[in-house]
Design goal:
By secondary structure, this protein is of the alpha/beta class. The chain has one domain: Rossmann fold (3-Layer(aba) Sandwich), CATH 3.40.50. The protein is built from six helices and seven strands. The protein has a seven-stranded mixed β-sheet with strand order 3-2-1-4-5-7-6, sandwiched between helices. Strand 6 (168-178) and strand 7 form a beta hairpin. It is globular and about 40 Å long. It starts with 8 loop residues before the first helix and ends in a 9-residue tail after the last strand.
């Protein structure tokens, strides 16, 4: 039986094929947007990379001494990421998991990063995703999301702001670039959203 908020079969098949045949986001390095956030001191503490894929962003942050966890629904991606972590002698907690059920990790984090995950979900599923983020992000922590600015999966700024209601503060939404195997990449937004200190329970 399909669980609530699972990714539909069409998109699941897309991801299976992409990981098997060559994903356009498999650039073999971290996204420059997250490198720059780290350089600016915006990524710190314990970090969760949600929808980590091959986990290049997570591996980069672990190489800088951060304690990092990565979660993705696709087992082939996590298997390869674990192999890369071993080869680079990096200690990274990489797990197969559902982004709508992050509380099952049994951990809390200071920073969450999202490289092109939020735009995968339908608008009706965003509140549940945000509630899942809230279940693992400590008060005062930040969620950084890099997602498409154009195309059918784009999430305009007003939609991002609407998804993060009570218990959150949108700190910034700025223009960015999403790197792909295509040298042109894609136009993107980079959002930073803070979990408010006195936030109460967030409903899914």
């Amino acid at each position: 039986m399909r669980q609530e908020h699972e990714v539909d079969d069409v998109r699941l098949e897309f991801f299976r094929a992409a990981y098997a045949l060559g994903a356009p986001w498999d650039i073999g390095r971290p996204q420059r947007a997250f490198v720059e956030l780290w350089e600016a001191g915006e990524i710190s503490g314990e970090v969760l990379d949600v929808g980590c894929g091959f986990a290049e962003n997570a591996l980069f942050l672990a190489s800088k001494g951060l304690r990092v966890c990565g979660v993705d629904m696709m087992e082939p991606a996590i298997t390869r990421a674990r192999e890369a972590a071993r080869a680079r002698r990096l200690d990274v907690d990489l797990r197969v998991g559902n982004a709508f059920h992050l509380a099952t990790l049994g951990r809390r984090f200071d920073t969450l990063i999202d490289s092109a995950l939020i735009h995968v979900f339908e608008p009706k599923d965003r509140p549940a995703f945000v509630a899942s983020l809230a279940s693992v992000l400590r008060p005062g922590g930040r969620y950084h999301a890099l997602y498409f600015r154009e195309g059918p999966r784009a999430v305009p700024p007003e939609a991002l702001r609407a998804a993060f209601g009570p218990g959150w503060r949108v700190k910034a939404i700025r223009e960015a670039h999403y790197e792909q195997t295509d040298p042109q990449g894609a136009l993107a937004w980079l959002a930073t959203v803070e979990r408010v200190e006195d936030a109460g329970p967030v409903k899914g």
